[in-house]
Here is the input.
Amino acid sequence: MLNPQAKIRLDVDEFARLSASNELESLRRALVLGADELLPDSLNEVWSQPERERLHRAWLGVAARVCDLLCAAGKHEEAIQVCQEMMHRDPTDESAYRLLMGIYGSLGNRPQVKNIYNRYAATLRETLGIAPSGEMQGLLGRLTRT
Here is the structure.
């Protein structure tokens, strides 16, 4: 039994607290805190999957917010790194590719926008057997229009 007077700090609670902030530094700390796999000893346990998935989606949401704040501050290189980490964690997450295409589009780097889109299309085709959404195709068109 746990001592009810004990002060217990849970990473999940700290992640949630930091994620609720609108400050870049707090959100950055949340990303670091949420970087580890939840319950690594229970990866194959059915009961842990819903919470693991919820935290994974929450981490991706925080990462997207960090990207937006970094771009607004003109810190494009750091935003690119966050997008790449998002893509590493979830190669089929459309938001990561959309953000990265937007960053390169804002920098006027149309060839890189096309490369990112093509990488996303290939990943979807290989892993899920589907094509990018019409929204992604439209974004590609808008960002590569001359």
About this structure: The chain has a mean pLDDT of 91. Residues 91-146 form one domain. Residues 49-72 form the longest helix (24 residues).
